[in-house]
Amino acid sequence: MSNIIQAFINVVNNPTIKLIGNNEGRNRMNNMGKALEDFIQDIFANTLDERDEHIRLEKLEKIYSYQGNQNNPPDLMLKGSDAIEVKKLQSKNSAIALNSSYPKAKLYANSPMLTKNCKECEVWDVKDIIYAVGYTNDNKLNTLWLVYGDCFCAEKEIYERIRNTISTGITTITDVEFTKTKELGKVKKVDPLGIIDLRIRGMWHIDNPNKIFNYLYEYDVQADFQLICLISKQKYETLPLCDREVVENLQLVKDVKIKNPNNPINLIDAKLLVFKV
User: Fold this and answer.
1) What is the pLDDT of the chain when averaged over all its residues?
2) Segments forming the whole domain that contains residue 238
3) Beta-strand relationship, 140-148 and 126-137
4) 23 within some domain
5) Is residue 218 part of a domain?
6) What's the confidence (pLDDT) of residue 91?
7) Is a pLDDT exceeding 50 seen at residue 34?
8) Closest Cα to residue 85, out of 77, 141, 123, 60?
9) Arithmetic mean of pLDDT, 242-253
10) Where would you tag: which of 147, 156, 157, 247 has the fewest CB atoms within 10 A of its CB?
C-alpha cells in the first residue's frame, strides 16, 4: 500500500523535475496538466524510472483502485488508502480552480459528485484526500505541494450550506421550468419558444498553499525544485513506522502547528516535510 511519505521518498531518491508532455499545438496546457498527473501517478507507484509502459501500467493497477478526470473526481484513489486531487498552476501564487467541486477535507463515498465506478472500485466509506498542487513553467516542475485536505479545508457542511442555499434560492424564480441536476441548477425553456436552457454552475477557487501556509514555509526563489508535504500529526502517526523513520533520519521533517480550518484560533499539531534541489 502506497502513501504520501513513500511518494516523498521516491522524489528524494529521484528528483526528476522535467515533465514529459506534448508541448505542441493549442492544447499544450492540457498536455502539461496530463504530464503532471502522470508524474503524481509515478511518485506514488515508484515508477519514475520505468520505461516499459506495459510494466508501468501493471504496477499502477496494483497501487490504484480508481482514476478519474476533470469531470469525474477524484483524479486518483490509492487502494485501501487516500484519494488524490491534482492541480496544475502556472504561477507560484495563483489561486487553485476547483470548478464545480467545493474543497474537501475528506472524500465521502455517498457524494453525488462521484461516479458509480468510483464508489464501487473498492469497499470504502470515507477517504483522506491529498491535494497535489504543482507549479510548472513550460515542462519544468518548480514546486509541488502534497497537502491533506483537512489541513486547509473546513468540514463539508460549511460549503454545502452555501451551495444548498443558492440552489434552493434559484428554484424560487417563477414561471420557469427546473430539472434535476448535480449543479446549482438547470432551467429549461427559458424563452417563449422553449428552446433555450440555462445551466447554473458553481466555480470554486481556493488560495495557493504558498499563500495559505506562508507562516510555515517561505518559497525559495533560488531552488530549482521544492517539494513540500503537510500532514496532521494524527494522520502522520498512522503511516508506517519504517517510512517515517526514513524521512526523520534524513532530517527532512519538522513539527509545526497549523490553523484549524474550522476554528482558526485553535492550532493543530502537524508535520512539515521539505526537500529542495
Assistant:
1) 91
2) 4-154+204-276
3) antiparallel
4) yes
5) yes
6) 87
7) yes
8) 77
9) 97
10) 157
